[in-house]
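Model the whole thing, not chain by chain.
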Amino acid sequence: MSLVFPFSAIVGQDEMKRALLLCAVDPRIGGVLVLGDRGTGKSTAVRALAALLPPMNAVVGCPYGCDPKSSNPCEQCRSRRTASNTLPKSAKIPVPVVDLPLGATEDRVVGSLDLERALTKGEKAFEPGLLGRANRGFLYIDEVNLLEDHLVDVLLDVAASGENVVEREGISVRHPARFVLIGSGNPEEGELRPQLLDRFGLSVEVRTPTELKSRVDVVRRRDAFERDPAGFVEQWRKTDAKVRRQIDAGRNQLESVQVPESALEQGARLCMALGTDGLRGELTLLRTARALAAFEGASQVEDSHLQRIAVSALRHRLRRNPLDESGSDIRVERAMSEVFA
Amino acid sequence: MIDPRWQQALGAAALFAVDPSGLGGVVVRAAPGPVRDAWLEALTELLEPGTPIRRIPPQVPDSRLLGGLDLTATLHAGRPVAERGLLAEADGGVVLVPMAERMGTGTAGRLAAVLDAGEVRVEREGIASCWPARIAVIALDEGLETEDRPPIVLMDRLALWIDLEGISPRHLDPGPWDAGVVAQARAAQATFETQVSDGDTSDAIEALCRVAEAIGVDSPRPVIAALRAARAAAALEGRSELAEDDVALAARLILGPRATRIPPSAESPESSELSEPPESSEPPESLASAESSGDASPPPSDQGQPNPTEVKRSDPDPSDPDQVPDSMDDGKPLAEVVLEAVRSALPPGLLAQATDSRQTRSRASAQQRSGRVGAVRTDPRRGRPDGTVRGDPRRGPRLDLVATLRAAVPWQRLRRREGSRTRIEVRTDDFRVVRRVQRATTTTIFVVDASGSSALNRLAEAKGAVELFLAECYVRRDRVALVAFHGQNAELVLPPTRSLVRARRSLAGLPGGGGTPLASGLDVGGAVADTVRRQGDSPLLVVLTDGRANIGRDRQPGRPRAEADALLAAQHWRAEGYAALLVDTSPRSHPAAQALALAMGARFLPLPYADSSVLSSAVKATVSGTLGAERPRHAHAQVRV
C-alpha cells in the first residue's frame, strides 16, 4: 500500500476530522456525510483515518472479519463455534476501510457467486462483495452524489440493518455487514436526493480555508508530502499515534460515560425547537455527544459536548423552510442559543 | 508575425510534456480545426516517444473505460479473465477526450478518481482488480457557449487551461522548445523535486497563495499544480532553482484563466473597489454549493476578500495576523511580481468582465447540474440509453440480449451440473436491461405583475404565492426563473436557476409601481420559455397579474391597445403550447384576467379564493402536469387546452 497523507497533517477542517473520529469511537453514530468545496481534502481525510485506526481482533480466515467474541457472528463462525465449543483463533488485523469505486456493479457490492470456482470446478460458492469486506469497518463512497440510485438504496438499507442478504443462483446467504458509511461529495456536481441526507448520522460541510496562512500551509504540506512521502509521514507519526491512543481510550470508556437526565432533556428541547422529524436526530445527538465526552476523557455528557456536535448532528435533518432564508447552520445555532440560554 | 497567444499555448504544451501526470492535464478550448490539430501535433512531438495516447468518447461505457470481464478469453481459458479498460491502457500516458463539454458528470467523476489515485479500481462483473493508471487528460472543449464547459470536477484537476479560439492558422510558428529540451527538463524535474531548497519553495508557495486569493481562486489544487508547473518551467530553462519568472509563468498559465475577480491594481487604489459591489448583489459560484446544502452564510471567498492593499504592500503590516514572512527579491515581493504577470496576461475584455464571470460560471454550473445530473429522470422506455443494469424486462425496460447472454454464459457449466439440458440456460439473475435517462426537468418561469395596480392590490400576497411555488419547485428539484413587469418594461430578473435562495432574494427585492406593460411581460416570459425548451427542459409559465394591461408593446399608455397586445401575446403562448397557470391577483375576479387565461390556454386561479392549501394543491397539479386533475374546489377554474 502506498503511503497516505497523515491525518494530523490535514490543515483545519476540524468539524470534519471530529466527525470522523467520533464515528471511529462509536460506529453506531451512523456515518458521516462530508459535503463541500473542491480540493478541501475530503478523500484525503477518510484515507488518512484508515491509516490511523487501531487494529481490531478478528477470527482468522473469516471473510467478514468477525469478532471472536461477537454475539452475532457470521454463519461460518457460528457453526465453527458450536462444533468446537471454544473461541476460534484470532489475530489483530487493520480495520477495513473499503472504497466503493464509481462504476462498481451490484454483484461486486453485495456479493455474488464466485465466478472462478463456478468456471473451473462448476461449484457454487458465495463470494462476499464490498459490503462483506467492510464489516466492522468503514465503507467510503467518494462522490456519493454520482452513485447510481439503486446502489445507494442497497447501501443505505444494509447500513441501517447491519445485515446483507443475497439470493443468487439458488443459494441464499446472509452475513453481518455493520459498517460506518462515509459519503463525500460536492453538491455542485450533482445534488443529493433529500431522502439520502438524513440517513447519515452526521453531516459536515467543508470549506476552502480563507486565511492566507492556512492556505499556504495546505499547499506547503501537500508539496512536502508529494516530494518525500516517507519523510513526511515519519514527521507526523507521533502526532498520529497520539490520536490513535485517544480513539482507543475513547472506545474503552464509551460505555461508562454517563448521560445525565439534564442532557437528555436539553437534547429533546433542541430537537423540538428545530422541529426535526422522528427520534433519529435526538438519538444521534446524544450518541455523538457521548462519543465526544469519551474521546475527551470526560465521565459524563455536559452541555458543552452537545453544543459542539449539535450542528453536525442536526443540520441535515431540518425541514426546508422556504420562508426562512437563513441557512441550517444558523438555525441550529439560533435554537441552541435559546435552549442553552 | 508571431502570435503571442499561440506561443503561450505552445509554452503550456511544453510544461505539460515535462510533467504530464503531475499537472493532470490540459483543457483545450477550441473548435476542431487546423489550429487545434497543430497544437496536438506539437504536443505529441514533445511527449516522451512511445507515450500511449487513448481517445475516449464522452459517453463511454464503464466496461470500456474501467475494464471488466473479458468474456471471450474467460470462456476460452475456463477461468475468469479480466480485461483492462482504456484508462489502464493509457497508464503512463495521455487520455484524449474529444467533446469534453458533453461529458457526463458520472464519467468525469470516474476520471477524477483515477487522476487522484493513479490507479483504476474495478469492482465489476465478478472482477475485483486494481491496475496502475498514472494518466493525464487532454480535454478538448468544443463548447460554443461560454456556459458550455466540461464538468468542473474534471476541470479542477487539469492544471492548464488554454484557449485557441481566434488564433489564425497562418501564424503557427514553432515554439522555442523541441523534444530534446523537454526530455532534458523531464529528467531534471525528477531530481529537482528532491533537491529544491525549502526556502525557495516557501517563497513561491506564499506568492502563489497570495495571488490565488487576490484573483479569487478558491480551490487549492491549482495552486499546488502551479508550484509543479513552476518547477517544470525552471527545468525547461535549465535552472535548478525557482526563479521569479518561473513562478510568474506558472501563475499566468494556471491561475490566470481561473480568475473570478479583478486583482487589486497596484496603480490606482480606487480600482480595488471594482471587485466588491457587483459580487455582493450576486451570489458567487461557491454559494451554489452552500445553498443546496441549506446554508446561506456568506461564501468563503467573500470573507477571504483580501485586504486589497495587502498584496501590493512591500512592507508587511506587523499587526497582520496572517502574516507570513515576505520574500524580498530586489525589494519587490514575489507575490507582487507574480500578480503583475497574471494581470498582464488577462485579456482586457476579461478583466472588465471579471465580476461578471462569476455569474456566468454560477449559471453554467447551475445548468450543468440541471442538464446532467439529478435532474435526469429514468423512464424505462424513453430517453438516451445509459448502460445496462440487472433488472426485470417484464417491468417495462427493454431487454439487452447481448448483455444478458454475456451474464449467463459464465454460469453454464454450473447450471449443466444442476441438470440443465438446454444449450444455454438463462435465469432471472442474468437479465440485463437497458437503462435510459432523459432530461425531464421543469423550469418554472414566474411572470409577476409588479405594476401600481397590482402593488396596490396584492403584490405582497402574490409574492407569498410565489414562495409556495418555490417550495414545491425545491422539492421537485425544478429550476425557476423570474420575469417582472412594471412601468414601461418587462425584464428577466432571475435567469433559470435551481437556487431557492436567489429566487427568494430577487422576489423580495422586487420593486412595485408604475404602469402594466402586460404584453411585454408575456413576451419576455415566452422568450425565456423558448430558451428553456431549446435546452431540452419543459417550461411552465406561472403568471401573476390582475390582467389590467395599460401599456402596449409600443410602450405607450392606452388601455384598449395594451389589452389587445396582451391578448396577442397570450395567444402566442397557446400556439407554442406552453403549460401555463394564471393567478388572478385582483381583489374581485375580473373578466380581463379570465379572458387572458383563456387566450393563453392557461389554468386560471383567482387569488381571492386561494388560501395557501388551495394554492399549493393547484401548484402541485399544474407542476405535475395533470392539468385539471386536482382542480381546487373553491376556485372557479377555467381549464383550457
